[in-house]
Amino acid sequence: MEIRTFQSAGEVAKEAAALIATRIREQVAKKGFFTLAISGGRTPWEMIRELAEEDLPWEKVFLFQVDERIAPDASPERNLTQLFNSIQNTKLITSLNVFPMGVTAEDLEQSCEEYAEHILKITGTGRLDLVHLGMGTDGHTASLVPGDDVLEVQDKNVALTNHPYQGRQRMTLTYPLINQASEILWIITGSEKAEMLARLLQKDPNIPAGQIDQTHAFVLTEESVTSSIN
């Protein structure tokens, strides 16, 4: 898996935005649209702000969530809330096709099925063009968290965690859907992630991130992370 290292998290965000912009132009020219799933996090929100400055055919970009907390609309804990905060006062707020996970639905299991069906409808194949992932200090990615039964899900593309994680149950894309993406973009910043990045690069199956397919994946990270890897 290719790894690209930059001096700061800000540079990582800028490079990630530039890379995604390139992929959008390529795929829109090739097939007429682009599908992207993004995770939350401080650096990803910077990435989205940078991406919003790009002159792109946003009406042909379809944005999905990698995961979301089961929380009320407009909750500051929601990734969706932070996404919209990041693109306020940009043309993306009106032209970007955003598809939120239905975490306020009465029947959350049905909501998972509907989200998976919607991805299939938009993509035509169920294969997203690019999935952006982050990683926690415990090796989780998306809301595929250590010790949860969601790690074993193979018959659903979207599922719920069985237990609250950091205070909230989650809805998440599962391994089958993530692993069939055309490309996977890891954004990993913060020196505290060094150990887990090393284990990710070793494809350690004992951490959730280690079970993500690395065939079409690459990592953007910062020097404070790679310099801490022994």
From TrEMBL:
Keywords: Hydrolase. Its EC number is 3.1.1.31. Belongs to the glucosamine/galactosamine-6-phosphate isomerase family. 6-phosphogluconolactonase subfamily. Pathway: Carbohydrate degradation; pentose phosphate pathway; D-ribulose 5-phosphate from D-glucose 6-phosphate (oxidative stage): step 2/3. It catalyses: 6-phospho-D-glucono-1,5-lactone + H2O = 6-phospho-D-gluconate + H(+). It comes from the Bacteria. It comes from Algoriphagus jejuensis. This is 6-phosphogluconolactonase. Hydrolysis of 6-phosphogluconolactone to 6-phosphogluconate. It is an enzyme of class 3 (hydrolase). Gene3D superfamilies: 3.40.50.1360. InterPro entries: 6-phosphogluconolactonase_DevB (IPR005900), 6PGL (IPR039104), Glc/Gal-6P_isomerase (IPR006148), NagB/RpiA_transferase-like (IPR037171). Residues 9-216 form the Glucosamine/galactosamine-6-phosphate isomerase domain. NCBIfam families: pgl. CDD domains: 6PGL.
